[in-house]
């Protein structure tokens, strides 16, 4: 194909236009690259701690993932390769954030509802206000920089959302995070508070539920003390703290004679009997008049409470014994192959009555406990009777089997004799 | 004149009763040291009849729906007079029937009773064994308990591995993608209508062929008889053989009674389709050797899916087993030794894999 110069001209013009556009795009692209340049990491990635921050470490940080960079907290000019210019006060460089400045710095964003909404509309923005009411916040305001600030609990440069199991403030990790200071006797010297809370909590039923059984709804430090507004619940309010989960026990306690008595003696509810951090799995031995009963801390032989404690313990034990008796006969029936699933279900209901009675104990009224125990004992007795009936039925079946087997044996002998008789008379064909 | 004689005369006058039972009177069966093995077929038949009887009784109370099946079986076992006995006998007799069918099959194989002209008797017997396994598989789900539910899930998953038609077969069996109430109704239909209908036809054919060709004599016994001056030893079918068979049935009834009364068949817990499968799900013992084999096969063998290859191999082995008599019609020579070897291998393999399946975690 032969083309003239005139015919070629539009194609050449089009080619030049496309080339110019491509060059423009490349230039703009390189400009954009220059804008996102972060010179902070160029140096700090190779420094040793505490100045060193690895790029991959910061990439895991929730702030980095939401598009924030070093400059968001530390200021400065990350586009400059010159350290003097990049970290100049003129460029707004703040340098290392001091502990006393940390909560206020974090709150610049975290207390701004309209700013935070764009990242997570459901995230609270009252952390700083809460912090100011906490023991940590109050002491910090008084100049004590040893107390916890945001970064002590949440970490720095690798912050993760609380729902992330690797986060220091995830429900499973909070106790250890708090214990880094609160279990350190050397660090806590001068604060006149004990340092055995972590050890005590680790032995508690709550720790067992949370860490061993993985029940994330079980309480950890912040559940009772608060997180940002962390403070001891205090004598007056401890009941309210416990009752956020143990609703019925608290309601019953309020109706009990102990309510007024504890208040008069200045004793806190709940923890007087159950302790605070070392809350062990409650047992029936806690109530009563035996050596391990907590009732003996206040009551002694001859007083009304002593007699009531003894009676409530006796009732709990009587239902437990009735359930054990029913269990034994049901297991025996089951191991004989008897179908007792309905009785097992009824036995479960009787067991529920025992659980309910153990809750009703918190009313500390013998009659109310007796009511629940009565329901349980009746259910246990019915279950026991169902088990006995199943065993009677089993024995009846076995007798029937014996009669059937004897009949079959007699028929077999009869048949054999008849065959012999037949074959003796008739010669084989 | 006794009542029985009068009834016989009445029947004779109308239907020619004497003429009808004349061949029965003349019929003889061979008597030798292996005769007792022949009772296994009769015992299998007896247990099948018990299944029919107890199955009909269970039908009076059983409700085939995912919401009611478990409760209805529970009701049968706890509230219905002798319901526990009927259900226990039905479950135990099912297992004993399959056991006695397997023993019958191996005894026929080792006594070489499959030889010409009895090839089709073997084939019809094999079809009956397959139908019995079908009865077992479909009946196992009907109480709608946890073990049955997940065993059916596993079983139908295996069916999905059948090359080409697997997925279609699985959906056909389940009545959908998953094991649901639709599967239960479907299995109920198979168990009480489809399988009994087909079984009746093949059972009639099997019995007809047994009557037509008589009971086989093992070649070794035949040879002994030929060399002996006394010749073949036989006894009358009626009443001599039949009375002996009756004794075997009574023994089976006794065993069944002991099992049903001392080890009543359990019910377990109601199936929950949303619950995770319990650990150690195992199929019924008669499927264990196949299940264990499929478990041991690697996930991939070359480019082929391991489980698919396993299912394919079992299908080929089943087909060869079905056609075994045609490889050795005379029951002698090299072919006979191959068939004997295959029988010993199959028996050892099934017994070994079953034991391994129960011992393995």
Can you describe this structure?
The complex is a heterodimer of chains A (429) and B (361). Chain A has 429 residues and is mainly α. Chain A has a domain at 304-425: Butyryl-CoA Dehydrogenase, subunit A, domain 3 (Up-down Bundle). Chain A is 60% helix and 0% strand. Chain A contains 23 helices and no strands. Chain A has helices spanning 5-35, 39-44, 55-59, 62-65, 70-74, 83-86, 102-110, 113-117, 127-133, 135-141, 150-154, 174-182, 185-188, 197-202, 205-212, 221-225, 238-243, 247-254, 257-265, 271-274, 304-335, 341-360, 366-425. The model of chain B has no long low-confidence stretch (mean pLDDT 92). Chain B has a domain at 35-214 and 235-269: Cytochrome Bc1 Complex, Chain C (Up-down Bundle), CATH 1.20.810.10. Classes of the chains: A mainly alpha (429), B mainly alpha (361). At the A-B interface, helix 23 of A face helix 4, strand 2 and helix 11 of B.
Q: Please state the second-level CATH architecture of the domain at 304-425 in chain A.
A: Up-down Bundle
Largest β-sheet summary of chain B = 2 strands, antiparallel
Shape of chain A: elongated
The count of β-strands of chain A is 0
Q: Any chance you could write out the topology, listing elements then pairs?
A:
The complex is a heterodimer of chains A (429) and B (361).
Chain A: H1 5-35, H2 39-44, H3 55-59, H4 62-65, H5 70-74, H6 83-86, H7 102-110, H8 113-117, H9 127-133, H10 135-141, H11 150-154, H12 174-182, H13 185-188, H14 197-202, H15 205-212, H16 221-225, H17 238-243, H18 247-254, H19 257-265, H20 271-274, H21 304-335, H22 341-360, H23 366-425
Helix pairs in contact in A: 9-10, 21-22, 21-23, 22-23
Chain B: H1 3-15, H2 17-26, E1 28-30, H3 39-59, H4 69-78, H5 83-110, H6 119-141, H7 146-159, H8 166-174, H9 181-213, H10 219-227, E2 234-236, H11 237-262, H12 288-296, E3 300-301, E4 304-305, H13 306-322, H14 324-327, H15 333-359
Antiparallel strand pairs in B: 1-2, 3-4
